[in-house]
């Protein structure tokens, strides 16, 4: 019974402190939300890029040979024969301007946007190689063919996505670490105000033998509360912004890099667990750090 009374008293004191220091608490909540929002963006970006690499890895033996606009039919046939005769070529498929435009239009909701723009989409050959290790050799060879505008293959794209993934990971981690430190400092300052406002009450409690745990518990409750609210705000912002982007741009992304975005429903609960855990951790750590420092009176 006594434990229940102590728990109720601790929670009551914690919420009184939250209300009294709501302006400082808002600053703490904002920085926690920003830190977790950026972390969520990094996590989603990493998941999407990893998914893209996995999807594209199955197509690394595919080379796209884009032809110059207005190329004559006889020259196209000569290029086709030249590519076909290569020992390393497993399959060859011609994609006309019209077909290229139709393929791109599948990624658009409003197909009228590209009506009459057939000439903007170059014809190409999709070359499937027997061995992906020969890709770079054939790319260099195909680039020298008269009438070829450019040559691309998925191995290049994998390298670019992997590099972008590393940049997002390291840059995002640095920004998140800075914001987490600011969050802890803000929580610490909020708790310091609570300790100062209640310094007489705390001194009386110490004089009658109250333990540091009993005195600091309401302060920890205060920090955890701000951490949880910040985490929930960050989760809602991150989830619904990503959901909007997914519904609006998923097809476009597939049209650009041949992979879909990770469905929001697949990551929402894991994201919420991560956010809540980190929010509680940041709030509790900031509170404990501050209470240890300022309760030494």
What fraction of residues sit in β-strands? 5-15%
Rounded to an integer in angstroms, the radius of gyration calculated over CA atoms is 30 Å
Distance between the termini: 31 Å
Helices, by number, come to: 9
Secondary-structure content class: alpha+beta
Oligomer: single chain
Helix content: over 70%
What descriptive keywords fit this protein?
alpha+beta; 8% strand; 297 residues; single chain
Give your account of this protein's structure.
The chain has 297 residues and is an alpha+beta fold. It is built from nine helices and four strands; from the N terminus they run H-H-E-H-E-H-E-H-E-H-H-H-H. The protein is 72% helix and 8% strand. A four-stranded antiparallel beta sheet has the order 2-3-1-4. Helix 2 packs parallel to helix 8 (212-257) and helix 6 (154-197) runs antiparallel to helix 8. 29% of the residues are buried.
In short:
With 297 residues, the chain is of the alpha+beta class. It has helices spanning 2-20, 22-57, 73-84, 97-105, 135-143, 154-197, 199-207, 212-257, 264-294, and strands spanning 62-67, 89-95, 124-129, 148-153.
What is this structure's SSE topology?
Layout lengths: L1 H19 L1 H36 L4 E6 L5 H12 L4 E7 L1 H9 L18 E6 L5 H9 L4 E6 H44 L1 H9 L4 H46 L6 H31 L3
Antiparallel strand pairs: 1-3, 1-4, 2-3
Helix pairs in contact: 1-8, 2-6, 2-8, 2-9, 6-8, 6-9, 8-9
């Amino acid at each position: 019974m006594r434990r229940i009374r102590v728990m109720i008293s601790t929670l009551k004191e914690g919420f009184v402190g939250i209300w009294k220091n709501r302006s400082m608490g808002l600053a703490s909540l904002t920085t926690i939300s920003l830190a977790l929002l950026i972390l969520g963006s990094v996590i989603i970006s990493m998941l999407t890029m990893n998914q893209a690499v996995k999807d594209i890895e199955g197509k690394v033996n595919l080379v796209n040979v884009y032809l110059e606009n207005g190329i004559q039919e006889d020259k196209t046939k000569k290029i086709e024969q030249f590519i076909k005769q290569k020992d390393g070529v497993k399959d060859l498929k011609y994609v006309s301007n019209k077909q290229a435009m139709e393929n791109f239009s599948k990624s658009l909701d409003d197909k009228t946007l590209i009506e009459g723009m057939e000439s903007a989409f170059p014809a190409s050959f999709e070359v499937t190689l027997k061995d992906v290790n020969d890709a770079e050799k054939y790319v260099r060879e195909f680039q020298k063919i008269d009438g070829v505008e450019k040559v691309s293959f998925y191995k290049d794209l994998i390298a670019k996505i992997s590099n972008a993934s590393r940049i997002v990971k390291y840059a995002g981690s640095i920004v998140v670490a800075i914001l987490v430190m600011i969050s802890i400092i803000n929580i610490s300052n909020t708790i310091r105000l609570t300790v100062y406002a209640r310094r007489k009450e705390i001194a009386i409690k110490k004089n009658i033998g109250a333990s540091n745990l009993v005195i600091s518990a309401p302060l920890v409750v205060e920090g955890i509360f701000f951490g949880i609210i910040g985490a929930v705000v960050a989760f809602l912002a991150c989830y619904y912004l990503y959901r909007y982007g997914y519904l609006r741009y998923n097809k476009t992304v597939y049209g650009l890099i041949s992979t879909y975005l990770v469905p929001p429903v697949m990551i929402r609960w894991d994201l919420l667990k991560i956010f809540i855990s980190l929010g509680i951790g940041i709030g509790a750590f900031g509170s404990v750090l501050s209470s240890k420092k300022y309760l030494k009176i």
